[in-house]
Amino acid sequence: MIRIRLTSIAVDDQDKAEAFYVGTLGFQVKQNIPMGSVRWLSVVSPADPEGVELSIEPGGQRPEVRAFQDWMRAQGIPWTAFQVDDIDAEHARLTRLGVAFLGDPQDMGAVRGATLNDTYGNLIMLYQAIAD
Question: Domains of the chain: which residue ranges?
Fold first, then answer.
């Protein structure tokens, strides 16, 4: 059986991205290992510290990565998605903290979601499963 245990996102500044993903979104650092001029930096949900890790990869400053991020943003396509318990409450909390969303939460079939700009080159979808 195949399982997803680690996924990644490219950012242009690991230090600032760590402050956003930990301080604003509420993740906790799982790995913080120096690797020369960069780090292996990953975060997890405090609700599931042994769950899927998000590796915050350096590379957003590289032209080919930046071009991909620019294309994704122009198309309105999130790089990844995070599940939340209450999208409306999370949207309100993050908006108060200054996080920029592309719009208010919307029903999208089996989920209700909203897309935020992490300011490090990526769009991120937050979604809540809609109960039947």
Answer: 6-129
SS3 86: coil
- List the structure tokens of 101: 């969303």
Residue 83 — φ and ψ, nearest 5°?
Answer: -85, 140
- This prediction has a pTM of 0.91
Are 87 and 105 within 8 A, CB to CB? yes
CA end-to-end span of the chain, whole Å? 29
Determine whether domain 6-129 maps to CATH 3.10.180.10: yes
pLDDT in tens, 87-103: 999 999 999 999 999 99
DSSP state of 7: E
